[in-house]
Amino acid sequence: MRKNIQIPNRVWLTLKISLQQMALGILLCGFCFAHKSSGQDILYKTISLDVENAELKEVLTLIEKQADVHFLYSSSAIGNGHKVTMKVSNKKLEWVLDELVRPLSITYVVSENRILLKNQKKETGGLSAPVDVDMAKTVDRILTGKVSGEEGEGLPGVSILVKGTQKGTTTDQDGNYRLSLDDDQPVLVFSFVGYLAREIPVGNQTTLNVTLATDTKALSEVVVVGYGTQKKSDVTGAVGSVKMDQEINSRPVVEIGQALYGKIPGVQVLASNGRPGTSSSIQIRGINSVSASSSPLIVVDGMPLPTYDMNILNSTDVESIEILKDASSAAIYGSRGANGVILITTKSGKEGKTKFNLNYTYGAQKVIDKIDVMNSAQYAQASIDAAQNGWIESGGDPNAPNTIAARKQYKYTWPTQFETPGQLIDTDWQDVIFQAAPMQKIDLNASGGNAKTNFTLSGGYVNQQGVVISSAYQKYTFSVKAVTKVRDWLEVGGTLSLSYDKENEPYNRIVEWAVQYPSVFPVFGTNGYLGGPATTPGFEKYDAILFRPKNGHPLYRINDDIQHKRFNSLGNVHTAIDILPGLRFRTALNFYYRRVDDSDYFAVDPNMGPTYYNEGSMTVGQDRILNYTSQNLLTYDKSFGNHTLSVLGGMEYNNNDFYSTTQQRRGYDNDLIHALSAGRTVFQATDEINKSVLISYFSRVNYNFKGKYLLSTSIRRDGSSRFGPNNKWGVFPSISGGWIISDEAFMKSRVINNLKLRASYGFTGNDRFADYRWIGTMAQGRISRGSGLSTTYYPGSITNPDLEWERTQQVNLGFDLGLLNNRISLEADYYISKSDGLLLDVPVPTVTGFTSVFKNIGKLQNKGLELNLTTYNLSGRRLSWSTQFNYSHNRNKLLALGVGDAPMIYQPGFGMESINKIGEPIFSFFGFRYLGVYMNQAEIDSDAARYKSATPGDGRYADINGDGVLNADDRTIIGNNSPDFIWGVTNNLKYGGFDFSFLVQGVQGNDVYDNNIHRSMLYHEGRNYYGEAVNRWRSEAEPGDGYHYKLTVNLDGYEKTASSYWIVDGSYFRLKSITAGYTFTPAILSKLKLQSLRVYANGLNLLTKKNSPLFDPENFNGGVTQAAQRGVTHSPYPTAKVLSFGINIGF
Amino acid sequence: MKTNRSYSLYFLILLSLVSCNQDQLDLYPETKLTQGNFYNNESQLVQAVDDVYRQLNRVYDARGIVDLYGELYSDNTYIEFTGGSTTFEEDIIGYRIQTNNGRIQTAWETCYNALFICNNIIEQLQKTEVTFSKPEMKNRLVAEATFVRSLILFNMVRVWGDIPMPLKVVTAGESYDYIRESEAIIYQQIIKDLTESKKNLPAFYTGSDIGRATKHAAAAVLAKVYLTQGDKANAGKELKEIIDSNLYSLDANRDGKVNKDDYVFLFQPATKNSKSSILELQFLAGQNAVNSTYQQIYTPYHWAFHLPGINETFRGEGMNTPTADLINEFEKADSTRKNITVYPGYVNLETKQFINYPFTMKFFDPNWRYAGQNVEIIRYADILLLYSEVTGDPTYLNQVRARVGLPGYGEPGYPTQYSTLARAIEHERRMELSFEFHRFFDLVRTGRAVEVLKSKGLAITDKKLHFPIPQNAIDVNPKLTQNDYN
Asked: Tag placement on chain B: N or C end, fewer CB within 10 Å?
């Protein structure tokens, strides 16, 4: 891309060019990068020429016509009388220009469809006298003057044209010009890349000094911030930005969060599971809340969404995603900003011919990995070991025969087939339930506009099967956006975005069962019923002991029918009025409607024969949210002298209306009709209504002095119905400042072209928890007497009129550094945030009747470092290579909890406890520390803290408090899911029309509770064991690896108690995405009559390096917004790897 | 043009302010009542008192504290298999309870929540200005709630010893001052409350009120409290009052004959609040009713399991499996009680193989998914056996035995190993009342727990007669002390 700016090996020759010009070049580079289509397209346009001894100017005119470009040059630049000869057909403009002007030492700069020609020799060789364009004509008068930038500096090379003619000149190195005029009332057009063009009638003047204003749009990347946009160079907070086109042109991104992987430091993206259509879970700068949600606020085109879901839009409709990470940038969202804010901006139409864009991707998906479990022979041996060990521990004679007569209980015996493991069936259950699954995505988009109106219209369709059998997904999206200027002071517009998706979900334990069901059973056994002990000859007597179909055959729930249908509609209508220059009033009504239909049919017949028929049930749920926000903004932008001021004032009224209902019928006769009506009895019919209102007033002032001293403050006052009457209103102020040191004279440097220091401090809040929580409600109970039922009432919660938001205050310090014309740029941020008034279910003594009270207490700290490094390693005309690297770490620590700071221990019911404790990270895993195996009796005897039932081969646990007794007091923190750091590296390479990019992304130092290890080791249910248990302790002669304890059917030690044995290292890094593409040249396109054409291949998640026996350490069981569930895996639906091919056609 | 612009602007600003009424921030639940607008009339107060019976069901539920301590911890039951990822129940049967035992913690929390609900309604009744339809109504309602509170406290003090004793609604701020009260003080309070309740409770109810706590239920609990205190004289007075009321009889089915059928009658789903019943947990069969879950929780943890006569398989939860020791103690002639108390196993419907895995049938309801059999807490046989205990007169014991066709104590054919009346009563209570949450309480009351259980190889000690206080309670309020459980 950079090849468009300067012929690279000449860069160093032109050092005498003023810094202004360099800055321009650099910024233009950013500009070109942001809109890669524009400059690139022009140079790829094809030209045919057949000229002999023609004037260069004439040739340029020919090219202008053919390529629809506009050359800007002064006569002095190209000189007079150059004759050129050229015969080419269908050559790229780039090639033609190189041939044509390079021998003349002329360089060119491209912007949009303008090409500025500059003569290096003349412009760098001291004063070059402006030369009149046409000496032949009569000269009436001479006009002189100076063209300057906003700060008074002379602008060299500005193109000056007499309107309606080809006559003109350019300014010299100091910005001076001289022009002879023959027209009476000439109008001059002053234009210069990066500045706003001006048209000025000359009148009778002989001197005309002109000031050009920088074209902010072109000069600087613009980022979206709360309630507005800002030049990136003016941003003083910590804002991350991703331009979607760069991400999704090359891969089938169904859900928007996918595009954020490894892109922004401080932003961790997690796939909670691999079900198609599932929103990814995003965490910005660590967890800020214990009880309330820690998911960011999503704002789509100014509309704050009431729920977190990254899957409600079509990714191809999205222009950019900005993430407000620090408190100062998020403070404008007040009580909803504490978890960071994700701003999603959808695409708008652009002035020009209506463009159509068609994108089609076809992909094949496969499960990302398989979990290593024992094969049949290994399982048989393990089962024999477990039965025998249990038998010996129960006092049995080790040499007793393997018969029920000798051993009394079946659990101490084993099927005789286990003794001939070679003849056992060996079913790979993971192969049974996983499938190679196709997916396709097609998007069609039309956009265009004129000076007053622009529009965009798009439709999309996704059809995806899941990698688990019976899993399927479809998504339909439609969006329209239009804005028109009714008068020059009045603008009206609106957007509407609809999405409807439909998922067939496989039963949620199918994967877990496929991992744990023993391989010794056939898929289908006797009578064609599900394979299990009762249907496998020789295993019948073990029906009660070995794992059986109803408990865990992967196909047991395959006849169920679980569906989700979601309809999302969001958009706005808005009106903007320009009251005075710079003063604008904008009012918008934003609306969001979401309707979710869930149905879950639990089949009667699980393929196990009539005695195993279930009762059958159908549960149907509907949720709907109607949310609207009325938003009124007054903005005032004003520059005077060295001061630039931008003021925002606004008010917002948000109303959320949630309704849900669930119905269930039971008692189905057969599985033919999956509808409520077919069930015999109504089991339940419930509903829920939750309403909330948020009223907000907010203001922000951005001020800069000389463009290099930046100051921004904001304040928001929120009133929420969620909180107690004593604390309904909260105030969230922020302040931030920046200093662009590189603009100071003393910092002018060839090496450092940009250095900005940033500092910010602000308050944000978190109101993300259930409505009405402050109100003590009367719960309903039921009792019976005789044959009657009566309703009873009891207090279900305690009233807390003081309930209010959680408040987070954050300091952010950062700098932006650009080196060597921004070939190297670094953004670094350091932050400390403290959240207080944490909404906690604070444990209280049970004499209150409750175990906890929901109140604002507790403090949590997050601090971290974020680095983002971008380098342009190669920027040749044909070959370019850039690298983006980011790194971040966050440390989380609880500073205060409830009364007496007592630790809060959670027993979520799946075995592993978690703890919140002062000085420790939030939601740490809590249990015994496993120390490996007692290798022999001597080791047990020498351990003071041995437990009574310990025998050689059993696990050994740390006596944390050193009191010589192993008991509950020895539980300690044994892990945490917060990573030590996360990182990502993206490389983009281009060679001609080919491009190649890959993203490697990693997470380090997070712990995961692997429930598969835990559950698979509980023999009494006969599950298969995880693969590593092959290296278990078997005897002193066969001690295994010293880590994996022996197996036994009599679990009487600590094997069933939460310990670090169940914790695995969740670190990983992966080749997240790899893309190869080819963009067709204009020559071919013109033959095909297309605007653009690109084909590409992409691989997603192809390689992962990990330490744990998990499908994907990212996956967890629980909702995407449940931070406490992260790092807890019971083998959920795993992530897929995807290989896809796509084509992108513009016409 | 200029005016156009102004008008539009005014209009829009006006529009934007319309919605900004701050009263809109005061929103209340629409699908639930709030505490602010309840307790306003007699029927609401009755509905709130009714909840104390739901609390009784919770405290006596399978895996509730009375079950864990009364049955699971005793020699009556054990666990063959059970699911789950913890060893909470296994630790209880193994007499190696950790202080963080989740089951016991949950049971503790349930008890205190139940106490709070009792205290709350007592306070509401005391301060209410509602005029009741019948003058004695208010006192009766207070007495019902006080009775339930006393019964819960009585169970708690027996399980944990000294405990914090809230007698009013305790705020979070006050709660830290509630430390463990001595057993003596708790018993004093229970006796005072039960004596008071007894005065205000009716002897019996009619119609839809049948099933509420009566004067005699209070007397029965009071008798047990006295007996636990070693006060046989007062216990005897209370028991005699119950017997003399003539409201109760072993003729549960009221067929005029006292025989085996009467025992069977007690454990059938349709026979609620019989003549033999003094206090029952009330259940109702059918979907969305008030179902009893004991049968499913107390049956084998096998997927192929099915109840007798029902060809639908389901997996029970493996709790409270009868021990061989219990099964063996039934006299040969005692088949009536044995067959209901323990069922030997089931036949696997697929493999036709008999699975030897006993379970109890005391809670059996053919409508097993949505069972509705009432559960006996105090019944007349219990009273008779206690009365023999306080009086030393085997007559009452022998009435119980005669009902199931067994020879009386001291009569020919009576098993010789129960040579004293005390042993005979111990044996009889086990045979008559197992699975009804009496066994371990009885053994502790008679001071026999350690001796009896030790002789059967169970790892009990004197220090293990009380459960540990849940660690969590001490974590929250370090002023609470721990029982020495070792």
From this structure: N
| Segment B413-422, tens digit of pLDDT | 999 999 999 9
Segment A28-40 mean pLDDT? 38
Q: Do B116 and A850 touch (CB under 8 A)?
A: yes
* Backbone conformation region of residue A1125, classed left if phi is above 0, alpha if psi is from -120 to 50, else beta: alpha
User: Distance (Å, rounded) from C-alpha A807 to C-alpha B269?
Assistant: 56
How far is the alpha carbon of A781 from chain B, nearest alpha carbon, in Å?
7
Q: Are B237 and B225 in contact (CB under 8 A)?
A: no
The dihedral sign for the CA sequence A1080, A1082, A1084, A1086 = positive
Query: From the list A489, A548, A728, which residue is nearest B25 (CB)?
Result: A728
Q: How many residues does chain B have?
A: 486
- In the block, tokens 């622009």 appear at A454
**CB atoms inside a 10 Å sphere around CB A860:** 25
CB B55 within 8 A of CB A801: no
For residues B361 and B434, the answer to whether their CB atoms sit within 8 Å is no
Question: Does the structure show a pLDDT above 70 at A273?
Answer: yes
Looking at beta carbons, which residues of chain A come within 8 Å of B34? 775-778
| Averaged confidence pLDDT in chain A | 86
Which residues in chain A have their CB less than 8 angstroms from residue B44's CB? 793
- Chain B residue numbers touching A728 (CB-CB < 8 A): 25
Q: What is the C-alpha separation between A1035 and A474, in angstroms, rounded?
A: 55
Answer whether A782 sits within 8 Å of B172, measured CB to CB: no
Reported as a single tens digit per residue, the pLDDT across A464-488 is 999 999 999 999 999 999 999 998 8
CB contact under 8 A, A968 and B87: no
Q: Is the dihedral of CA A724, A726, A728, A734 positive or negative?
A: negative
* Tens digit of each residue's pLDDT (9 = 90 or more) over A869-886: 999 888 776 788 999 999
Q: Is A944:A964 a contact under the CB 8 Å cutoff?
A: yes
Which of A540, A719, A787 has its CB closest to that of B353? A540
Paired tokens of A827: 């953004």
**Contact criterion met (CB below 8 Å) for A157 and A170:** yes
Q: Are the beta carbons of A843 and B476 separated by less than 8 Å?
A: yes
For the cut 50, the answer to whether the pLDDT of residue A4 exceeds it is: no
How confident is the model at residue A739, as a pLDDT?
Answer: 94
- Strand A879-896, strand A981-991: pairing: antiparallel
**Which residues of chain A does B311 touch, with a Cβ-Cβ cutoff of 8 Å?**
611
Tell me which chain A residues have a C-beta less than 8 angstroms from the C-beta of B214.
Answer: none
